[in-house]
Amino acid sequence: MSARPVAQWSTGPHHGVIWESGLALVSGDLPLTAANQLWARLADIDDLGEFVTALADVAGSGLLVLPDFAVAVIREHGDLHVAARGRLVVVADVPGEAVVVDGSPVETWTERQVAGAMSVSLQAPGASEDPTDLRLGASGVLPAGTLRTTLFVGPVTVPVGGAVPAFAARQHASPDTEAAPPSPGADHPLKAATLFPDDDIDPATPIVPPEVAAPATSSSPPSPPLSPPSMRGPMWGAPPPAPVPSPDGVLAVLCANGHANPPQRPRCRSCGGELDGPPRQVPRPSLGRLSTTSAGTIELTAPVVIGRAPRTERFQGPEMPRLLVLTEPHISATHLALRIDGWSVLAEDLGSTNGTYVRRHGQQPFRLVGQPHPLAPGDVIDLGHGVQLHFEELP
């Protein structure tokens, strides 16, 4: 049996909702009967898109008139998929910083993937976070102003004096599952990297995608990534089961011209038209284009494994990936993978010799280490020696 999250909460005018895969703070404008219905709907939900759909259903509203909310769907190893709408906010504590997700600047809501969080708080303006004001909650609907849970700490001990303890996550990493330490120099820009020849030649003969015309520059505004890599299963419990094939579809809102869009977008990513219908399950469209400096352009309709002699055996997932060959000698045989999950495109280095670096507008280049990383429109993956992968028209 999987363990449920245990939260600290302060009393307030909103609905604190705690279920097996996460916690949410929903505006008190939502009737209590609807909040109770939401909690019942969430019993089998471990996906942020499904949470939003359930909230829209019980509120009897469209996606643009949802009540304010802050939500954290908690996955393995402290990874979170969080979102906030209106005046409610999410604060995730990761080593060295506090990640704040505030939905007030946008019409719909703001989403973010957070990796390796130590704790997460859902807060309303003015709510108390004084430890002496916090109570304990395990599952259900609470009259709350703050919800907080702690991830990846040691065994819980009750301090002298009656202070409220922090709460340990229900899943502890074993020696076999702990994340590898970051590679030396992972935070340095690409220019500081030293490239070495790679001799892991693989005899496999992959398929090289045909060259097509380079894509036009996208004018679509960037939107936050939706779903992280599928690692669903009992929260803070045993490792998730092996993925099984499922229908190739996504939850989407259609414009008047029939273009599919992520549910949180106010306007169509293809034609700019308004989106005002209910979300529905549709076949997943292309999630953009990948253009390379040496191997042409491909549509992102399926996962991709990239390298000098890439092999599908290095990729784990429910879909068969395409193979993209880059012939430069410093590229590893199976260098990196592009995963597709929901509306997100994620890049993952597969233990390459010379590393994989992401260049994002306005930021220093950073190296991919460990978990898959969501990509944004305009991102460039730099593999060194002029080999670059350009991502355009991502959702």
UniProtKB/TrEMBL annotation:
Stored Gene3D superfamilies: 2.60.200.20
Origin superkingdom: Bacteria
Domain FHA, first and last residues per copy: 304-358
Keywords tagged on the record: Phosphoprotein
Keyword Transit peptide: no
Keyword Phosphoprotein (UniProt): yes
Pfam families cross-referenced by the UniProt entry: FHA
PROSITE patterns: FHA_DOMAIN
Region (Disordered): 170-243, 257-291
Protein name from the UniProt record: FHA domain-containing protein
Species per Swiss-Prot/TrEMBL record: Nocardioides caeni
Organism classification: Bacteria, Bacillati, Actinomycetota, Actinomycetes, Propionibacteriales
